[in-house]
Amino acid sequence: MKFNFKLIILLVVISGMALSCKKYLDVTPDNVATIDYAFRNRNEAENYLFTCYSTIQNMGPSNNDAAFTTSGEIYFPNTLTEATLGSRDAEQGFHLIRGVQTTDNPSLNYWDGEQLGQPIFKAIRRCNIFLENIDRPKDLPQFERNRWIAEVKFLKAYYHFYLLRMYGPIPLIKQNLPIDAGTDEVRVKRAPVDEAFAYIVSLLDEATPDLPRTIQDPARSLGRITQNIALSVKAEVLTTQASPFFNGNPDYISFKDKDGLNLFPAAFSAEKWNKAMLACQAAVKSCEESNLSLYRFTSPGNLPTIPPALKTVMDIRQSITENWEKNPEVIWALNPEFGLQSMAMPRLTNAMVQNMGGAPGNFAVPIGMAELFYSKNGVPMAEDAGYDYRGRYAVAAVPAESKYYLKSGYQTIKMHMDREPRFYADLSFDGSCFFGNGQTDPENMLYVQARGGTSLAGPKDNIRVNVSGYWPSKLVNYQSVFGTEVTQTGFRMPLIRLAGLYLLYAETLNEVNGPSADVYTYIDKVRTRAGLKGVKESWASYSTNPGKASSKDGLRAIIQQERRIELCFEGRIGWDLRRWKVMQDVLSKPLQGWNIQDTTPEGYYRQRNLVIPVFGLKDYLWPLKYNDLIVNPNLVQNPYW
Amino acid sequence: MPYLGSLWILLSVFAACLLLLSNPTYAQQGATIKITGTVKDSLGLGIPGVSLQAKGQSTMGTVTDGDGKFSLNATAKSIIVVSSVGFRQVTFVADPLKLRVDLILHSDDNNLSEVVVTAFGKKERREAMVGSVTSITPSKLKIPSSNLTNAMAGQIAGVVAYQRSGQPGLDNSTFFIRGVTTFGYKQDPLILVDNVELTPTDLARLQVDDIASFSILKDASATALYGARGANGVILVTTKEGVDGNAKVNVRFENSISQSTQNLEIADPITFMKMYNEALTTRNPLAVPRYSQNDIYNREQTLSGAPGSNKYVYPAVNWIDELFKTSTNNQRLNGSVSGGGKIARYYIGTSYNRDNGILKVSPVNNFNNNVKLENYQLRSNVNINVTPTTEVVLRLSGTFDEYNGPITDDGSFSADLYKKALHTSPVLFPAFYPADPSLGIDTHILFGNSSTEGTGNTVGFSNPYADMMKGYKSFSRSRMSAQLELNQDLNFLTKGLTFKGLFNTNRYSYFDLTRQYSPFFYNIASYDRVSNQYSLNWINNQPGQASEYLSFEPGFKDINTFVYMQGVVDYSRQLGSKHNISGTVIATRQQRLYANAIDPATGLSSLQYSLPYRNVGLSGRLGYGYDNRYFAEFNFGYNGSERFAEKNRFGFFPTIGGSWVISNEKFWNGGLKEAVNKLKLRASYGLVGNDAIGAQRFFYLSNVNLNGGNPAYFGQTNGVTRPGVSITNYANDAVTWETSRQTNIGLEISLFKSLNIIAEVYKQHRYNILMERASIPTSMGLESGVSANLGTADSRGIDFSADYSKTFRGGFWMSGRMNFTFSQNKYGQYEQPAYKEPWRILSGQKIGVRWGYIAERLFVDDQEAAASPTQLFGAGASAPKGGDIKYTDVNNDGKITEADQVFIGLPSTPEIVYGAGLSMGFKKIDLSLFFQGVGRTSFFIDPSQVSPFLENRQVLQPFADSHWTEENQDLYAKYPRLGTTSSEISNNLQTSSWWMRDGAFIRLKSVEIGYTFPDKLSKKAFLSNCRIYFNALNPLTWSRFKDWDPELASNGFSYPIQKVYNIGINVNL
Predict the structure, then answer these.
(1) What pLDDT score was predicted for residue B112?
(2) Cα B366–chain centre separation
(3) What burial letters (b/e) apply to B964-982, b meaning 16+ CB within 10 Å?
(4) CB-based contacts of B772, cutoff 8 Å, min separation 6
(5) Cα(first)–Cα(last) distance of chain B, in Å?
(6) Residue-wise burial string across B986-1023, b where 16 or more C-beta atoms lie within 10 A, e elsewhere
(7) Contact assignment for B716 to A219 by CB distance below 8 Å
(8) In a designed cystine with B84, which of A346, B50, B69, B626 is the match (CB 3.0 to 4.6 A)?
């Protein structure tokens, strides 16, 4: 028995080893971070609030913004021998105008968060997680909790709105589905657009009362959502809903989901314009009560006296590039700075030639866009009775009185002369003066020489080249210096600024009441800052069509052109052209540029087709990725895709 | 501290064993005669540890000493069986008239050799085995390379292996047992060296001279004891131990010359310029040619060295020649001492390997930055008989790598230099300018460069020569391992009982660093043709851009530790004359810790990854054999892994197997037995698991980063910021193992005592493969995929091996062997969106098959291209023209989209791997040849990696010879219409059958000829044996693919596979 006893001891010991296994495998401590910890206290919850903001902060106007890249305002060539935006993929938004969008792998895919698109559904899920859990931190004061809830509701509304503008009908993610939700549950359907608009507006309405009207502590909180922002976004949302694309659009009335539900409203509703007008009115009122106003340039002490012509140019330029805390016009901007100044900058100096990578200047504004700007009389060139429209491509020497706009005596075309100040403020081109880049003496401004490869700004290679001859220098801060080294002074591109809101209000007023004093008042506020006379006066005095401003249709055209000029290159017009349903018209003509390789004025100022845009009816809305339709059979593809 | 607790338990087991010792007895019987002699192998080397056993008299036996000498007491007329692992067994009759017996044993791989090392190092009689285990004589893996994994292809039935790079230190072969049997996370086998789990790199560094046994466990029965880790097969290696006898010294020195098996052929600079111009104008007729007639003429002058030509002003550079030598020299030195007595035995092995790269090193630098990988190893295995029934084994080993090489942008060390050389224009700038006194500087090299196309002082290109010369990167890697083993004979408890306890720990450390200067770049400022004088312009002249002094950059550091414990109780006993029973119980636990704790999903360290990685297991085996004819075995593994939720932590993996040795039946006799000496049938069936199913650490926990991932900023200067919260995983407590259900049937035949055949067929069904759900729409807004054990895969295949060995009269012997592996693996269930197109469904397709378009031919002309279904790939793409690839519109919808992609070709992992070798010898000369090949595999040339002119790429000669041009509209040319940007040729950059190539090849893998000096000569030099040999690795390759070495497959621009010519000497004292 002795032996067996030893044997048993041995086996007990060995199996003891095996039995302690269970504990051995418990390696995870109790407090491994899980999502519960995100709402344990105020600090953690604030971090989660920032998480909700995170996505929107990547959605500013830039190369990943559909309105910025596809509006036809800026052309980006697809023939550069090197990728200047960081990678070839970063250019894809600009190429969409060539008709290369696919359903296989859509560019700027905000639905899935692919191809430069931000993952908006993820952002919405975060907002919902926040709203579900924000009652948990015990040390969070109620007023602050209310404000945070209001901010997140706003964000949730805006994320839905962003998708709605791009995709039309969208699934509304009012609540999060659990991770282990069944297949049927996760296969959500697209809600009709009016239901989506209503949901977005209801969220905004819920949010508005608990938001501060303006930011009280700009040093810490600038960029957080305010009442003014919420009201202005509501104005945009309702105006979008009232606009022709979403309001009784005949091309989309047969757009149904799989249950036969109409996703677009069949009939036009004038009431929608009325609601939009009231929303605009409320937003304007609130902003004005908060002392927001159109921006005027105040020359810093270190600058010499600025002559009036140049002051107007600076009023216009700085209305978007001024520091936002000093700019009373900004209603809403995102915190990240605009990152593509170097793309909008012409080469002005030898130092810049030495450092060509510093400012590639690839953003090329097509000639058609340059022609959109008014004459100095504040009416379209073609309508200006006193403007030699037919002779606009003739070459002439710049007269001395234009010296704050153009290099005196320089040979350029007449089209570049006698234009409105915004033309000179927003564009750089062969012969135009540039205030800034380290040279702030008004009498001795740098100017653009862009004819042929031997000129400073001309095409040195097939990489750092502007293929049209127009740079959108509106997007360059005058304090930025490009040389052998680059010192950029950043700015935040406004998402909504007062000038835009005024024009929106004017637009809705005109739609509701037709031409009226109110309409003119709000357009003229913008025109006055741009150094132009009022609408009525300008058309009456200078236009070949003096009655245009007195008819509802004529005034609509005027407002639209005014808006396209005032807000150009800011990533807003792309959305406007879509909701006005005029994008197909605007993009029906080839985008052209000058013959940039030629050194003589006569040879240079010959038009060259850059691209013939491909924009069909289907392109008003983004396609859903084909794969998404297969994963979720309840989704329907957008029409014509 | 459960960990310390278990250590204590193990120690107490040791103590218990020592306490339980009882008196040993050595039975001695009267000896009739005493026979002495030696046992040698076919190369004349004494074989230590050969067992000589009188048949039926268990006490009459001995083993040979370190020199192969023995002295045996035996009864006259008794039959002595001489056997050793890896050698064919022989017998002789103890003859009182012949007291001196010298024997030669022939090596015996893949056959019915008597003892095989199986799971947990247990030695089993081959005859009694029911599982599928291949063991190979380690010396067969001896190739003139310091990477053991490169010897495996074609040598071992059931192993699929291929090598994708020839770069020293990064040239491991990829290998699988029975193919890629899962599409899950871990597909490669478990590697165990002396029972301890190690990495493929550790296996690669092992010295063949230190290996005692090398086994591959292939089926469920053989791997079941590893339970949750064995599903992909197991490679089991044990290292040598000392044997009784005088100190035996073995020294081997090899020097080899290594060169690329095949070099890429690059078009000359003139062709490059002409083709560039063609590429420009063929896409845009108005384009200005980049190179004028003058440019071309001047380069021609440079190339021909015409008087007045200037190779600095008009460079025409062959970058490959500029950077690389054609061959290099490598050395390997290996030595071991072993011996011992009754109390202790020792084996000490040391080795030093040095692999050099093929970079040209300029004397201008005072540091040598050619690739150099030095590897040192020390290994000491000491066995001590503490008491007659207790043996303690101490194994200490250290492996140390020191690497030095040029700086590279990526982690590939020197491979990207090869790539850079192929991505630099041959005509833009020279590698460097000669020292120029006019600059007043002679302390740095005047490297050539240029700004991008135009003027201006920006460095536009990478100068590969400068990249090579500017500094060096080095790494140090070491693994130290200490292992203590206790073997206790427990016969005193009950007969046939033994205990074996093992403790191992090893420590791994790695760091790398770079030291470099910033090169000075110059271009030509002016050139005077008449005087042939030029002046230089310093391009990167801004402060901080160029420096002559070295800067230092610390690199990646990696440390990890490993602890392993194992206890085995084994029982084996013959009951009566016919019944043989055996049982084994094994308990193991292991832990691994990583210092960096990097979460692969985010690249950042995280708490979850810092927690210990643990496995525990209890496994067992029950065997029964009847009369050496029928064998049955039951195995199980009961294993736990910390990664799963508590309810899914432990898995039970049972297997059963049986075998029937038909040739031991009574009816198998006479002539039949003479012809068919052995015939055995075996089969096994069971489950094995795989717990390495994903990179996620704990499947049952969500992985949330509360401190990063989604930041936001506020305030006028963005001064208020918070990092945000991100979720990398959602909790899922249902996730569990991947399991493999395996069936294996084997047949072993031995014919005419010289031909051995093993043939096996197998089937595997892999289920519970973790895969990401494809049915969750984006609108859920999940931040990471949700995975579930959904996938299945099915495999089947054949392993076949045969070997033949015969000694003829007059000292001539020969042996041949061949083996063949076929494995086919298919997706079973695979969750995909419900595609309408049946050709997109993955189920039923082979694992590793690519998805792509069907290329019909090139478009005839622009009209045809315009009239065909739309082929637009991505934004920025241009529509195809004549000479671009035409794809089939499979679903006939008028446009080429993803829905037109089908599965094309064969898997990237070969379905067939085979090898065949022949060895022969006559007296002192021996010769062997080994061929190896793969079949049924495809690879795809990556067009974005080979297309000329993209990223300044040079032109491959095959494309220069055959491409579509407007003059020669060859619709089946090797390369379609040229272009200079990826948007112009995006149509041709798609994965399609156009770029598919047959990956099959056969190569003469090795050839060796050796000469052993006669004993007389050796003795004079006080050597017991001395052999010199010459061998070659990869000298010849045959393949349908000619452009580069086919084994590199799609990696044509990587460091080429090397062929090696080697001379070696092996000396025994």
Answers:
(1) 42
(2) 35
(3) beeeeeeeebbbbbbbbbb
(4) B785, B786, B787
(5) 51
(6) bbbbbbbbbbbbbbbbbbbbbbbebebbeeeebeeeeb
(7) yes
(8) B50
Which among B17, B618, B981 has CB closest to A79? B981
Output the pLDDT for position B648.
87
Q: pLDDT (tens digit, 9 = 90+) per residue, B66-88? A: 778 888 888 888 888 888 766 77
- The residues, any chain, with a CB within 8 Å of residue A142's CB and separated by 6 or more, are none
Residue A181 with chain B: CB contacts under 8 Å = 780
- Nearest Cβ partner for A20 among B2, B454, B650: B2
Contact B454 A219 (CB under 8 A): no
Among B701, B779, B893, B950, most A C-beta atoms within 10 A, so best to mutate, is B779
Residue numbers of chain A with a pLDDT score lower than 70: 1-22
What pLDDT shows up at residue B1018? Answer: 77
Q: Is the dihedral angle over the CA atoms B183, B186, B188, B189 positive or is it negative?
A: negative
B232/B217 Cα distance (integer angstroms): 9
SS3 state at B7: helix
A26 in reach of chain B (CB within 8 A): yes
Backbone phi and psi for residue B61, each to the nearest 5 degrees, phi listed first: -165, 165
**Which has the closest alpha carbon to A163: A227, A216, A119, A214?**
A119
Beta carbons within 8 Å of B958's beta carbon, 6+ residues apart: B265, B974, B975, B1042, B1043
Closest residue in chain A to residue B898, using alpha carbons only: A104
What pLDDT digit, counting tens, does each position of A418-461 carry? Answer: 999 999 999 999 999 999 999 999 999 999 999 998 899 998 88
d(C-alpha A433, C-alpha A405), whole Å? 5
| Minimal CA separation from B602 to chain A, in Å | 16
Q: CB distance A324–B452 less than 8 Å?
A: no
Best of A631, A634, A637 to disrupt the B interface by mutation (most B CBs within 10 Å)? A631
Which residues, other chains included, contact B58 with Cβ-Cβ below 8 Å and sequence gap of 6+?
A: none
What CA–CA distance (Å, rounded) separates A307 from B847? 74
DSSP 8-state secondary structure symbol assigned to residue A313: H
Partners of B486 in the β-ladder: B392, B501
How far off is chain B from A632, nearest CA to CA, in Å?
6
Q: Which of B6, B451, B897 sits opposite A24 (nearest CB)?
A: B6
Low-confidence ranges of chain B (pLDDT < 70): 1-31, 42-44, 58-59, 85-86, 107-114, 366, 410-415, 452-456
Taking the CB of residue B1049, how many other CB atoms lie within 10 A of it?
22
**Contact with chain A for residue B577, Cβ under 8 A:** no
- Biggest alpha carbon–alpha carbon distance for chain B: 107
Interface list for A 42-61 with B (CB within 8 A)? 44, 46-48, 50-51, 53-55, 57
* Strand pairing report for B33-41 and B100-105: parallel
| CB within 8 Å of chain B, chain A residues 413-432 | none
Q: What count of Cα atoms within 13 Å lies in the side-chain half-sphere of residue A496?
A: 25
Size of interface A-B (CB pairs under 8 A): 289
Which of A588, A583, A531 lies closest to A560, judged by CA?
Answer: A583
CA geometry: angle B991, B992, B994, nearest 5 deg: 125
Q: Are B358 and B263 in contact (CB under 8 A)?
A: no
Q: Are B928 and B919 in contact (CB under 8 A)?
A: yes
Q: Is B966 on the interface with A (CB under 8 A)?
A: no
Q: Which two tokens stand for residue A377?
A: 């009389």
Chain segment B616-674, per-residue pLDDT in tens: 989 999 999 998 899 999 999 998 888 898 888 889 999 999 999 999 899 998 888 88
- The confidence score (pLDDT) of residue B415 equals 64
